[in-house]
Structure formats: C-alpha cells, structure tokens
Amino acid sequence: MIVKRLLNRNNILTALIPCLLLVSVLLTWFGYRGLTKITKENGQNFIFQSVQFFSKALELSIENKKEDVNNLIFDDSLINHVYDNLETKTYESHLKHIFQSSNNEVNTIVFLDTSGNITTSYHYDNQQITVMADQDVRQFVDGHFPNNYYSESDGTSTGKAYYIGQDSYMNIYQEVRNDRGEIRGTIIVPVNLQLFFEKFLSDFELSYNGYPVVKNRKMDYIMHPSTERVGQSIVELRQQDSPDADVSDLEQLEAQQLSQQSGKVEFYSYRKTDDNQDKKRRRIGAFQWIDIGDDSWLVMIDADYREVTRDIAEMGFVIATLFVMVIIGCLIALVALKKIQDKEKVEKENQFLKELQARKDELHEKEKKLYEMSKMETIGIVTTTIVHDMNNFLTPIIANAELIAEGYTQEDEQYDDLQEILKAARIGKEMSTNILRFSKNSEETNRQHLYDVSDVIREAVAQVASIIPESINFEVEIEKDLGMTQVERVDIQNLVYNLLKNAYQSNHGEQGKIFITLKKVSQHSLAQFLKRTAYHGKDDMGAVLFEVRDTGTGMSKEIQEQIYEPFFTTKNEDEGTGLGLFVVSSIVKKYDWQIKVASKLGEGTTISVTLPYYTSTPSNS
C-alpha cells in the first residue's frame, strides 16, 4: 500500500511539472514584457532630456553667433572702410580673424546700404579675402532680407533658414548706426548651418546609437548628419527610395510633431539592405520646438528600439537558459528515481513493508512539513519567481530521495546513485537560495534601520563577490563589532556592488586583485569628518573607513574629475552605462558621508567611503 502511495505521488509530481512549466513560462513572459516597457519608457525619458539639453545648447550657440556678428560694428576700421571709403590698414586683418574664428561656418559677409542695395561683400577662401561680384551675393540676399527690417529691427536678428544646393543657411542681420544713432546700413552674415551642425555634433555625445536632427515647419531637414538629406522631409526620402511604399506611419509622425510643442514618439524607419530590400526598424525618440528669431525649428533625437532594450533581452536570455538547465536537471533526477523504483519492485515486498512501517510516523511528519513548504507565496520580480519555483521542484525530490536512501546502507548498489541525486539536488537548492537572498528587496529592507556596520558590509561584500568571476582574487579585512549605523540595507548593497563592479571592470576581466578593508578612522580624521558633515556636534558618533582598492589600469586626473557625472564612462557601450560611481556618489550625498578617490595610471585605483556609527545606542532606535 505504501509503495503504491509513493508511486502515485511521484506520478502526480511528474504530471504537475508541465503545468508548473507553463505557469513559469507565462510569468516569465509577462514579467519580461513589463520590464521591456519600463526600459523603453526610461529610454524615451533619457532621450527627451537629451533633446532639451541639445535644444538649449543650440539656442545658446546661435546667440553666441549673433554676439560675434554684433562685435563687427565696433570695428571702426572695417565700418569706415565700407561706408566712408576710408583706406585703413587693419580692416583686412580684422576680416580674416572673423572668418578664421568661425570654423569655416562663415565665408561671406555682405554690407547693405539703407535702401537694401549691396555696398560691398567679402568672401574668404584658401586664406584669401576677395570682393564678391553682386550676382554671386544675390543668392544670400534676394528673398531672404526682410522688407520691413529697419522698422522692426532691434539691432541683431536672425532670418529664416533657406537652402542653396545641398547646403542650408541662416542669415544673421546686424544694423549699423553712426554716432548720432542714424542707420547707415546692414551687415548680413550667412551661416552655413550644415557646417555649424557638424561642429556642434562633435561636442555632443548620446549613450544610445542615435543622432539629433533639426527640421523647419515644412518638416524639411535643416540640419542632418547626412548632408544629402538636407532640404528634404522623411516622407519624401522614403518615397524616393520606394515609390510604392506605405508612408502613413511617417505622415502620422509629422502630424504629431506639427501639433505638439514637445513630445515622445515611436515609429518605424526603413533602410536598404545590400540586396536592395527594405529593412524595417523600430525606433523611439523625442522632439521639441524652439524659436530662432522669427523661425521655428524642431529638434529631434531618436534611437533604435532594440538597442534601448538590449540589456533586458540579454537578461531574458540568461533567465531562460537558467530555467532550462534547472528543468533538465529535474527531469534527469526524475528519470533516475524511476529507475530506482523499478528495481525496488523486484525486491521482497514484505521486507520493504517492515522497514517502511517502522518509519510511518516519521513519514507522516515529513509530509506535513512538505505540505507547509508548498504553500510559500511567490514573491519578487520575474527572476525571483522562477527561482522560487525551482525550490518547489527540488524540495520533494530531496525529501523523497532522503526517505528512500534511509532504506539502504553504504554497501547497497543503489546507495551511491541516491547520494549523487541528493548532491545534485542540494547544490541546485543552495544556488537558488543564494539568488533569492541577493535579489530580495522588500519594503522592510528599504527602510532605515540600525545595523552592525561590520555585519551589513560583510554580508553585502559576500553577496556581490559571489557574482564576480573567480579570476579576480579578493582580500577582505573587516574589523568586527565596530558599532551600529542607521541606513537602508539596499543602499549598502548598491554601494558595495557598484564599487566592486568598478574595481572588477578596471581589470578588463583579466586576473587581478581587489583589496577590501573596513576599519575605524583616526581621531583626527573623525574630527574632520564630524566637522564637515551633518553629524557635527554629536558626541555619540564615530566613523569607519570602507576602502576598495584594485590593481587595474588606474585613471588620469582629468578622468577623476568626471567620474561622478551621470552617463560618463571610459568603457565600451556594452561594458557600462556610466552610472555606477554616480549611484555611489548619490548614496554618499543622501547620508552626508564622505568619498575620496586616489588613482594613478598603471597602478590601480582606491575609493574610500567614510560613514558614521553610534558609539552608544540612540534613544529613538
């Protein structure tokens, strides 16, 4: 009877595995989709912030251009030469300086009289200044110089963007007055917007593989990294590549941009492959309108959707691989159990029943414990849920294997097989338990509590060290019983994780050493710490120094000045986001701790964090 009950229980367990697999797959899928959505929204928020930064920088750069043009009227030698026909010796050198300082964005300056007629114009090419013929200058004046300029001018202004061939231009107008305030004429400085844009882009960096563009109200590109696209809209370019293509998605994109001052977008772009086939690519981005004089420009940045969500896709692959490996292990264990059960059938049933009857009460107690364990709630995010399910798979396997093993001695043939099953199952259970412990992030964890500073840092170091490759050697020296500190446990985990990750990456994945120490600071250092922080005047405070030192490549002084900036990184795009030390710095600022970096190229880096502890238990604890 008991043998049949055991067999029936294992048959039920075998039947439940497909159901558990299906539930786990569904949980993984919905969790993955949720994480992907959050990642996409975060990516769009980052791109929108980049658009705002780029727009502001663009407006400031245009204002600087206007200021440069305004400085022309203060050059008496140039103004007197143009409007009074006075021969001066310095005007040409002043002109050359103006052209050279513009980075080739300006190579023409036009002077008009009060009637709008061309007085003279200068062109700069190959280090030479020449006077231009009127017919060559007309392309910069005709149709662009406002008829009511003198009635509405406020000194320095900009015109609307226009096109000459494949280049886009914008005129900067500067009125010229004499000492009595009377208008003498106007200076026109055409700015090559494409060259201006290329120079501007060289100082702008985006974490994602995207780029900014600028359009006018007609949706034509004014500035674009690809010169051949200037003067055309995204719809026109698509129709040129594929005359029969459906452009409704792109038309909706333009309609949204024309109807909103700013916003976030999601659309599909198309690129020709080597075999002349259209390749559809999903992109996300953001845009904002800015006013440049009387003109309105649309600034837009977009990036590849797959690149933004790449980290989530990689995480999904890792989770799926881990999931498949554990399931394969469970199936192998079940097959082995089935073989053992088949062998048991040929043994004498009476002897087997006598041994099992003696342990009937023990079996009943274990079944009750197993039933209680099976009622554990599924918690956490997708990874934690899956690992928790793995524990539910492994627990009955271990329990039944232990139960069966008690019926054998070391001399029995099946004893070693059972021990192998138990060993594999216990390793799997230990691994899943460690993952659960590291990924746990409950509300209680996120509240500030009093912790032994030695214990909480030692625990965080142990958890993080377990996920760093074995090629990195750790030397850990943490003094015991240093005192109690009030902190959120997750902040300590994030602090330790980012410091150790930074130290590991400085070795570029090669063999290296990481030295971790925690010790009390000297009395002098304690006095300096308390004096400079919010803990000044508290007599019951001490301080400890948490130090992480690596033997990696080190950093230059220039790099050290930027390491706390968000998104700053010297690593490849697939190695880091530039947020690690920014997170560390944010945690230090949150608690008013102190951080110090010492590094030298070729010798490694040491990062030290000073944090307080209570020398006696606070009354409000």
Automatic annotation (TrEMBL):
The chain crosses the membrane at residues 12-32, 315-337. It comes from the Bacteria. The keyword Cell wall biogenesis/degradation does not apply. It holds the Pfam family HATPase_c. Residues 346-373 form a coiled coil. Its EC number is 2.7.13.3. Keywords: ATP-binding, Coiled coil, Kinase, Membrane, Nucleotide-binding, Phosphoprotein, Transferase, Transmembrane, Transmembrane helix, Two-component regulatory system. GO terms for molecular function: ATP binding; phosphorelay sensor kinase activity. It is an enzyme of class 2 (transferase). It catalyses: ATP + protein L-histidine = ADP + protein N-phospho-L-histidine. PROSITE patterns: HIS_KIN (PS50109). Residues 385-615 form the Histidine kinase domain. This is histidine kinase. It comes from Vagococcus allomyrinae. The lineage of its organism: Bacteria, Bacillati, Bacillota, Bacilli, Lactobacillales.
